[in-house]
C-alpha cells in the first residue's frame, strides 16, 4: 500500500509538469486552433538560457524570473514576425511551420550547447521535508510551483481586463476587432504567456530528466495526452488531464506494463481518447451545419 501511495504521489508531481505544458498547448490552440508541435523545444531552449545564467553566477531564482521574461518576449516575437504572416494560410502550411520551428530550435540548441547531457540544479533542498518518505522536496516544489502558476493564470484571465480581452480575441477575433480589441497584440501576448508557462515546466522537469536538446520529447508526448484527455480547448481540463496522465503513467508503468513501456501509456491514452471521445473529458463538441 505504501508503494502504491508513493507511485500516486510521484505521478502527481510529474503530472504537474505535464499540466503546465498541456496548458501552454491549450493556450496556443485557443488562439490558432492548431497544436504547437514546437512547444517542447521552446521550453528546452528556455531551460538552456536559465542554465547559462546560473553557470555565470546568477542566483537560481533571478535566473528563473529572467528566463520566464525572456521566454515571454521570444514567444511574442515568434507570433508577431513568423505566424502573423500565415493567419490566412492553409492549416497544413501552419503545421509545417510548427514542425520546422521544432527542428530548427532542436538543431540550434545542439549546435550552440552540444548534445552532451548536463545536470540542472533544483532550487529546493535535498533533505525530505518533515521526514516525508514518499515525495522528494523537488517533486513537492514542482507541484507547488505548477499550482502557483495555474492560480496566477486563472486570476489573470478571469479578473483582469487584459485577460478578458485576450480570451475574447482568441475565441472570436472578428467580433473583438469590432469592439476595438487589438487582436494581433492579444495573440502575441498569448504566445508569450504560453512560452513563459512552458519555460517554467522546462526548468521544473530538467533536474529529473537532465538537460539536453531532446529532453522534452517524452514529456511532450505526455503533455499531448494530457491536453487531449482533458479537452484541447479547456484550460482546466488540461490541468486535470496532466495530473491524471501523471498518475496513470506511474501506476500502470509500475504494476501493469513495466517501466520499459511507460511511454506507450501516453500513446494508448491519445488513441483511446481520439476514438472514444475526441473532445476530451471537459472539451466541447462543436457541431457545424453544412
Automatic annotation (TrEMBL):
Its topology with respect to the membrane?
Answer: Multi-pass membrane protein
The record's principal subcellular location, in a coarse class, is: membrane
Q: Where in the cell is it found?
A: Cell membrane
The reply to whether Transport figures as a keyword in the UniProt entry is yes
According to the record, the segments passing through the membrane are 12-32, 52-78, 90-113, 140-157, 185-210, 222-248, 255-276
Q: Which UniProt keywords apply?
A: Amino-acid transport, Cell membrane, Membrane, Transmembrane, Transmembrane helix, Transport
- Which Pfam families does this chain map to? BPD_transp_2
Family per record: Belongs to the binding-protein-dependent transport system permease family. LivHM subfamily.
Protein name listed in UniProt: Branched-chain amino acid ABC transporter permease
Species per Swiss-Prot/TrEMBL record: Pendulispora albinea
